[in-house]
Amino acid sequence: MTLLAEAAPEPLCYGTVVNEWICADYFRDRSDELTSATAEHLSITLGAVALGLVMAIPLAVMARRSKRLEGWVLSLSTGLYTIPSLALFPLLVPFTGITATTVVLGLALYSLTILVRNTLSGLRSVPDEVRESAVGNGYGPTRLLLQIELPLALPVVIAGLRVATVSTVALTTVGTLVSYGGLGNLLASGVKDDFKAQIFAASLLCVLLALVLDAVLVVVQRVLTPWSRAGS
Amino acid sequence: MIEDAFAYLLDGSNWSGSEGMLALLLQQLLLTATALAVACVLGLPIALWLGHLGRGGFLAVNISNIGRAVPTYAVLVLLSVSDAGPFGTAELGPYGRAGFATLFSLILFALPPIITNAYVGVREVDKDLVEASRGMGMHGVQVFREVELPLARPVIVTGVRLALVQVWATATIAALVEGPGLGKVIVAGFFNSNYGKGIAGAIVVAAVALLLEGASTFAERRSDPLRRATPSPRKVTVSSQRDDGREATGEPLIP
C-alpha cells in the first residue's frame, strides 16, 4: 500500500473521490493534453479568421461597385450568421466530411458578416481627395486599392478582425460536434466524465485565448497604422 | 448523406412522439420565447433608464464585448455540471433535462444585445430634439415616453431581434450537454455516426432560424412607421459607425 502510494501519488484535487473546480495538480498532470488542445484551438481560429479575411476583401471590393451587389453580399453573410453553429457544421459535412476543414470553413463563413461590413466601410472612409490625388499621380485601380485604399481602411478592418477573432475563439468549441473543437473537446469529455477541473481549465483557457488574441491585434494595429495614433 | 437526411425528414415517424422532432421543435421554441421574454423584462428597463440618464455607457457597451468572448458552450457546460443550487441536469417541467441551466444561459446571452441596443438607441436620440422637448416644458418622464422611446424604437427592436437569433442558436447548443431542444437530433446523429439524422436536424434548425429572422425583420419593418415611409434613411441611424469603426448596434453576436 505504502509502496503503491509512493509510486503513483494520488492527485489532491481530482480523481475518483475528490472533484474540485480549481485544481493545480490537473494543470501539472495534464499539461500535454491542455497544450495540444489549445494549439488545435488556436490553429482552427487563426485558419478561420485568415480564410474569412481572404474571402471578405474581394467580396467587399465587389460589393462596392453596385448597391445591388452590396445588398446581396450583406444579406447572404447575415443569413449565414443566423444559422446556429451546431447546425452549420452538419450542413457542411456532406461537402467537407468529418475534418477540421468543416470547422474552419464554417467559422470563416461566420466571420464574413463582420469582416465584409467593416472592410466595406473602411474602404468608404477613404476621403475622396486622397483617392483623386492618387489617380492624379497616375495610380491605376489595382495600385490605388493595394497601396492607398486598403492601408487607409486598415483601422476599421482590424476593428472588425478583433470582433471576428474573439467570437471565433468562443465558437471553435462547438467544433467538438465533428471532434475538432480544440478546447471544446476537453469540455465535451469533461461533461461526459463529470470532470470539473478539466471543464474549468478549458473554459478559462478559452477566455484567456480570446483576450490574448485581441491584445495581439491591438498591437498589430498600432504597428501597422502609426498615423492613426499621431492624430489622437 | 444528403439522401439519408431527406429520407429522415420525410419519414413521419421521426416527427411524432415525445422525442420526435415536432415535440423537440416546440420545446426549443418554448425555451426561446421564455428566455427572450425574461431577458427583455430584466434588461430593457435598466438599459432604457441608463440611456435616458446618459450614464453607465461604459458598462452597456462593454457587456457586448464580454458576452462575445465567453463561449456559450462553456457556460452551458459549467452550469449543467455544477451541483450548486438549481443548476445541474435536473428536469424542469416542459423545459426538459437541464432545463434551468439551459434557460439561465439563454437569458445570459440574450441580455448583451438587448441592453446595448436599448442603451445606445435612447442615448443617440438627437440631443436637439431632447432639448427642444424640454424647452416645451416636458419633464423627464414625458421626454422619455413621448420623444426618446419612439425615436429609439427601431434600434431597440433590432436588439431584441439579434437576441432572438442568439437565443435560438444557444438553445441548439444545449443538446451538447444533453439538454433539451432540437439540437438533440443533431448531436444524437453525429455521436452515433448516423450523419443523415444529424444533417436532417441541422436542416430543420437552420430553416427555423431563417424563418425567425425573416419574420422578426418583417415585424420590425411593420412596427416602424418612419421606416415604412422612407425606406432607407433610418437605416443610417441603425448602422451608424462608432469611432472604433465597429457598428454600434446592428452588430451580430450569434454563435
Relevant terms:
heterodimer; A: 232 residues; mainly alpha; MetI-like fold; 11 helices; 79% helix; elongated; B: 255 residues; 71% helix; 0% strand
Summarize the structure in words.
The complex is a heterodimer of chains A (232) and B (255). Chain A has helices at residues 2-7, 24-29, 31-63, 67-82, 85-96, 100-124, 128-136, 141-172, 183-193, 196-224, 227-231. With 232 residues, chain A is mainly α. Chain A has one domain: Orthogonal Bundle (MetI-like fold), CATH 1.10.3720.10. Chain B is mostly helical and 255 residues long. Chain B has one domain (2-238): MetI-like fold (Orthogonal Bundle), CATH 1.10.3720. In chain B, 71% of the residues lie in helices and 0% in strands. Chain B has eleven helices and no strands. Chain B has helices at residues 2-10, 21-53, 57-69, 72-81, 99-123, 127-135, 140-173, 183-191, 195-223, 225-229, 233-238. In chain B, helix 8 runs antiparallel to helix 9. The longest helix of chain B has 34 residues, at 140-173. Chain B is elongated and about 70 Å long. Chains A and B meet through helix 4, helix 5, helix 6, helix 8 and helix 9 of A and helix 3, helix 4, helix 7, helix 8 and helix 9 of B.
